[in-house]
Every structure is written in C-alpha cells, then in structure tokens.
UniProtKB/TrEMBL annotation:
This is Choline monooxygenase, chloroplastic. The keyword Iron applies. Catalyzes the first step of the osmoprotectant glycine betaine synthesis. It catalyses: choline + 2 reduced [2Fe-2S]-[ferredoxin] + O2 + 2 H(+) = betaine aldehyde hydrate + 2 oxidized [2Fe-2S]-[ferredoxin] + H2O. It comes from Cladophialophora psammophila CBS 110553.
C-alpha cells in the first residue's frame, strides 16, 4: 500500500476532533508494522528531532566517550580536553568505516583501523596518511560528521542528527523549560551516579512501548505492584510541546519510602523517572518496524542506602519486564493483519493519544516536504560540496534507478 493512502492527508486529525465524552481512534496497525513507515520515521523523526540520550556525569573526564545507536544511526559522544562534550557520527570521513569499536572507553584520539585516518576528541581530522601529497585536500573539511549536542540545566545530554549547521527544529521549540520544571527543584542531579545499564530486546514496534508507558489504564490489570510506587487513582498526564509529564499524589507512606515520582516522556523515544533514591532513564530504540531494544540507564543517589535503592530498582525492573510481555503479544496480533485500530479513552489514554498526535504531525509534515521536493529527504545525510559535480550526477542516476534498497522510496 502506498504510504500516503494511510497517512490520511486532507482529513481532520482524529486527536484534534476528540473531546472528553467521545472515544478516539488510535493510529492504524500499519504504522506499527510497515517497513516503509519505519524508513519514513528514520527520515522525519530520528534524523531530525532532539533526542535525550544520557546524563553528563557519565563523561566526567577528558577523553571519555560513549557510543549510541538510534534507529540505525550510530554516533559517539566524547568530552574533550577543554571539558566540552562533542558528538559525531561513527563514520570515518574517508571510506565510512567506524572509528569507534567499543561501547565506551577513554581515548586520546579516534583512529580508523581501515586506512589509519585519525581524529581529535573534537572530531577534527588530525592525520590522513599520504594525503599531504595532494594539493587540494583540505583537512579542515574532512573531520568526522558532527551532530548537535546540548547539555540542559539538569545535566542531561541531548543530540540532534540534522546535518545542517543549525538544526531545523530548535531544542526550545519542543522542550523549553522542561529541564527547569518546578518538580525537579527538589532534586540535586549531581547526587546521582550511574549504577548500571541493561537492555531488553523486544519483538514489537517502538511506538507500542511509548503508548504503553504513557498511560496507566492498564496498571490495575497488568502491574499489581504499581500501587506501591504511585497512586493510580490520582495519576494524570499532561502533554506540553514535545514532552508528557506524569504525576500522582504520593501517600505519606510512599514519601517515607522515597516513592515520590517525577516522570516525564520526551518525544520521540525517551522517558525519565526521577525519585529521591533512584533515576531510570529509559530509551525506546527501534531496530525495525517490528522490533525494538529498550535500554535502561539506572542511576542511584550516592547518599541513599542500598536498601532504599534496591527497593525501587527491583519494583521498576519487574514492571518493565511485565510491559515487555504486553507489548510483544500486542505486536503479534498487529502483525496478523486483522486489527486496524481501536477506540481509546480520551482521559485515561490521553498520554498515548498525545504521543500519537506528535508522531502523526511529524510524519505528515515531512511527507509534505518530500512531495514538494519530489524526493526523499534524509536530514542527517552528508552535504556534498559544490565542486563534487560527478558525485551529484552519480546520485541522481542512482535515484532514478531506485538503487537504495534500505531506503525504500515513497509511492506518490
């Protein structure tokens, strides 16, 4: 099916039509199963929007680096000798070999093990063997492909893979004030240190987990331990620009046990749950239209006892394992091709409805841009210099032959 057939252009948005008394139709199953839609999301969302990835305390010393992979885009964050955090794609400028092999570590330089090109901690080209023999080779134009990095007021690190000098979507457009929200003021984020990381691979689309996270309608049925963590009856969510806040009124017993939660979902694919003894940063990482990897960064308050930390950590670990089962069985039925979509409760499921509306808007906006350009637009892609005439001709020839099998073309 052509992708525009199920984008619904020209029709009012279902979420925009909703009110407190009417159920709302969810995104169709095809948005959770289609390879074509997944590639469109890579273009419209993951290569263009700001994404929260970690906390700056993990890069405390010069030379420390971390490698990440989001929807097939692999990139590296590194702190340089002046203390600044840089980001760049894990792609050598010469022949595209990865310059970083490990998941994390400390380096003085980044050296490509294919042809020996090396780069500084800021991504600038340091050495290209034998290229000093060439007259028109400009080292300053051959550093690693940079990505945009922002460290917010709470110390969390964000990236944007847009290859333009300034990203088309400013951080403030979606997240202005999210790092200074009132409920964060009771926490000192410098007191939290990474305890461990783990991941759960799942046979389901990344949006299923996002839908699941952003409502507690399923909590009484699927999570018997949730009342220990939060008061389900007072639980509520609010969508603001690019994020969704979750809140409930903790009981006195929950306060005593350190269960007062400040939880936020950041579109497209990250959530943070902050508690006095514990932080869980959860990243929803698509691996394809029907598979994801959920990465969990677990931070502990260095002033908290082991008992206080483990009490919360074990509860969250149980809840996320339960969510994995829910998501996998849901995806299995979506794959069968029977279910199209259901009607969602505008109050109890307003979180996933808000998330789906953000996703819908991002997709539709990008499709309109591609229609106008009459070609796919990959915001993270390298920009060739003006003098690369032959390369541009080669690209045009290939585009006409549809010779990019991993980047399925749209059918207009």
């Amino acid at each position: 099916m052509a992708i525009l057939d199920y984008l619904g252009f020209g029709r009012p948005s279902p979420a925009a039509e909703s009110n407190s008394k009417s159920p709302v139709r969810a995104l169709p199953a095809s948005w959770y199963t289609s390879e074509e839609m997944y590639q469109l999301e890579r273009r419209a969302i993951f290569s263009r929007r700001w994404m929260l990835v970690t906390h700056g305390t993990r890069l405390s010393q010069p030379g420390e680096y971390l490698k990440f992979d989001v929807a097939g885009y692999e990139f590296v964050l590194c702190r340089d000798r002046s203390g600044e955090i840089h980001g760049f794609h894990n792609v050598c400028r010469h022949r595209a070999f990865p310059v970083v092999q490990g998941e994390q570590g400390t380096a003085k330089i980044f050296a490509c093990k294919y042809h020996g090109w090396s780069y500084g901690l800021n991504g600038k080209l340091a050495k290209a063997p034998k290229y000093d023999e060439l007259e028109d080779f400009d080292k300053s134009q051959n550093g690693l492909f940079p990505i945009h990095v922002r460290v917010d007021a709470s110390g969390f690190v964000w990236v944007n893979l847009d290859s333009k000098e300034a990203p088309e979507v400013p951080w403030e457009q979606d997240f202005d004030g999210v790092d200074t929200q009132e409920r964060y003021k009771v926490y000192n984020f410098d007191d939290y240190i990474l305890d461990h990381e783990y991941k759960l691979d799942g046979a389901y689309n990344w949006k299923i987990l996002a839908d699941n996270f952003n409502e507690c309608y399923h909590c009484p049925t699927a999570h018997p331990d949730i009342p220990t963590l939060a008061d389900i009856e007072t639980h509520d969510v609010t969508g603001v620009d690019g994020y969704i806040t979750h809140q409930s009124i903790p009981t006195e017993e929950q306060k005593k046990l350190g269960m007062a939660i400040a939880s936020t979902y950041f579109f497209p694919n990250v959530s943070i749950s902050v508690l006095p003894h514990f932080i869980m940063l959860q990243r929803f990482l698509p691996k394809g239209p029907r598979s994801s990897s959920m990465h969990y960064q677990i931070y502990r308050n260095k002033n908290s006892s082991e008992v206080d930390f483990q009490r919360i950590h074990q509860l969250y670990a149980k809840v996320v394992s339960e969510d994995k089962v829910l998501c996998e069985l849901t995806q299995k039925n979506l794959n069968a091709g029977i279910f199209v979509n259901g009607q969602m409760h505008p109050r109890l499921e307003k979180g996933p409805l808000y998330f789906q509306q953000r996703d819908r808007e991002a997709i539709r906006e990008h499709v309109e841009r591609e229609k106008a350009a009459k070609q796919e637009i990959w915001p993270a892609q390298q920009h060739l210099p003006v003098e690369a005439v032959v390369s541009k001709e080669d690209l045009e020839l290939c585009s006409g032959l549809s010779c990019q099998p991993e980047q399925a073309g749209l059918v207009w």
